[in-house]
Design goal:
Tetratricopeptide repeat protein, repeat, TPR-like_helical_dom_sf, 78% helix, 15 helices, TPR repeat, TPR_rpt
Length: 276
Amino acid sequence: MKGYFLALLIFVGGAISHTSYSQTFTMGKKCRALLDEAKTLLNNEAYAEALAKLDEFSGSCKTKDAKEQGAINKAEAYNNLGQYESAIKEADYALDVTKDRSLEGHFQKGIALQNLGDVEGSKQELGKVIQLTEKNQNTSERANNYALMARVYARQLNEEDSAMYYLDKAMALAPENTDIIIQKGDLYLYYNEYQEAYTTYDQALALGHEPLDVYQSRTQVGLKKMENKYGTTKVQELRKKMTDEEKSTLCSDIQKGLDLGWKDMSMDMFSAMICQ
């Protein structure tokens, strides 16, 4: 069934020139912070916790964009928990508040229907993705659309090749968009391709991306690489096992982040134990 998604969305990638997806949301700073926290939980596959955070978000944030974002992120969480009926309910709410124009609402509903065995319903939802995409003439939004497709393929369908395909298309359309480059670095990190992740984050930095974001991301690469190499997350064990070169790379990234204002007690402690 995943092949069906791939075939249909490759058609989208080849034929479309439009999208309805936009990352410019109308919501306040507090709401953005809550949404970012929820998305971080989703990225960490902490779906139950993400749902709790999204309930908090939905209770406080009432703009149209906030309603859509709350619903589509809940739908993603429910899909990953295998609660497909609840995912459809949230996706339908996102489609209702956007008058059927929520691209990710259609995506999430299509995924839920796919998992419930409703092939025809899934086809209809992805057909609407194509229709919405074809109507949009905005290149920047089209790039965001491809980035969204990449996100769905990586996080929900676990198809790295397809995710990279759409990220490359997004980068070709919007080479100045360093958020998309960071997303590609995150994807390399997700699949444990550490050197590619480092290189991609450095590319974003060279193009002007916020340095603190880059050094936080590079730090995550170093930590995951060491934890996987040595099979432990215990700082004392890592301190004994890491080579001087490994410590130098990781500690340099941590220190640059801290110098740029990174407030993280765990990094302060890690640095004190490993780097000094």
